[in-house]
Specification:
Blueprint: H1 14-27, H2 31-44, E1 71-75, E2 78-81, E3 84-88, E4 93-95, E5 98-100, E6 106-110
Parallel strand pairs: 1-6
Antiparallel strand pairs: 1-2, 2-3, 4-5, 5-6
Length: about 120
């Protein structure tokens, strides 16, 4: 018994569509076959479909770019990096624990470690 199917539509940018067409031409399959099997694999983590991965050229291993994680703290309207006052909190954008500069570039994360101040009598 054949499974019922429903038509759908997807939009790809031109570059991705060109890559898809090249892969389909190489494999001798339709866009529909490739996309359907790709989605099936993404969902089930298994597929008998030959995606043509075996003959893909090895990509040279590049050293990962490791950047130091900058920690920030916003306290009493002031922004601090490593306890150094770097300006007003209003000069930065905070979103989900991330700190962004005025250009929208992520520059670090909020330091979530609690600060303890000892006060002596």
């Amino acid at each position: 018994m054949k499974k019922k199917v429903k038509p759908t539509s997807v939009r790809f940018d031109n570059e991705l569509l060109d890559e898809l067409d090249q892969r389909c031409d190489k494999l001798g399959c339709s866009r529909n076959d490739f996309i359907k099997n790709s989605v099936d694999f993404a969902i089930s983590q298994y597929s008998d479909f030959d995606f043509g991965d075996d003959d893909v050229e090895e990509v040279q291993q590049q050293e990962p770019i490791v950047e130091e994680i900058r920690l920030f703290n916003c306290n009493s309207g002031k922004m601090y990096e490593n306890d150094k006052d770097i300006g007003d909190c209003a000069d930065y954008h905070l979103d989900h624990g991330k700190v962004f500069d005025n250009n929208g570039k992520q520059i670090g994360i909020i330091d979530s470690k609690p600060k303890i101040t000892l006060i002596s009598d």
